[in-house]
Amino acid sequence: GLHAAGKDEL
Amino acid sequence: MNIFRILGDVSHLLAIIILLVKIHRSKSCAGISGKSQILFALVFTTRYLDLFTTFISLYNTVMKVIFLICAYITVYMIYVKFRKTFDSENDSFRLEFLLVPVTGLSFLENHSFTPLEILWTFSIYLESVAILPQLFMISKTGEAETITTHYLFFLGLYRALYIANWVWRYHTEKFYDQIAVVSGVVQTIFYCDFFYLYVTKVLKGKKLSLP
Fold first, then answer.
1. Which of B10, B58, B68, B102 could be bridged to B125 by S-S, CB 3.0 to 4.6 A?
2. Mind listing the pLDDT tens digit for each residue in B1-33?
3. Residue B165 near residue B4, CB atoms below 8 Å
4. ipTM over 0.90
């Protein structure tokens, strides 16, 4: 999902 | 990965290293809030649990591991190795005032009601306020060593660069994470007053002292 991509940030 | 993101991560790493070098060289953690450092260790621990579940990239894994190790070394330096130099008297911010609302909010406002996601949300909210015990300590003692202000400057710069990174990602990928962005903006606001003092005092060669 859209928010899952946020996890690539530290 | 854009330039703001990379510079943000480098700035974050630099801040953490500056703090470790300061403590190591002076053999003292005077003026450093152990409570803020405990909160940062908690932030990294609850956020990087996905190290066990998903592989994103080598860069991502290596940076997460470095941040975790550095956070725990810092806490160890303050509470074990250089405990005698730790100014616990002035590190008197009440952590429950941060932990209770942050825990409550992470259960109420998250992307999905699963343990990992709630812990990730908790870490995002907690990071936004984790520096408050440190800023509280400086306002209480009315001063900070110059090296401590460099630490805070790079930590604040990392937050500001992450905002630029989100603006960039929104325009190029139509990507944004509301929880991260709102918390990130709140967090950056906490540094504004400090940035002002840093530019008007520290960069002009004066020590940061409050009237």
1. B102
2. 899 999 999 999 999 999 999 999 999 999 999
3. yes
4. no
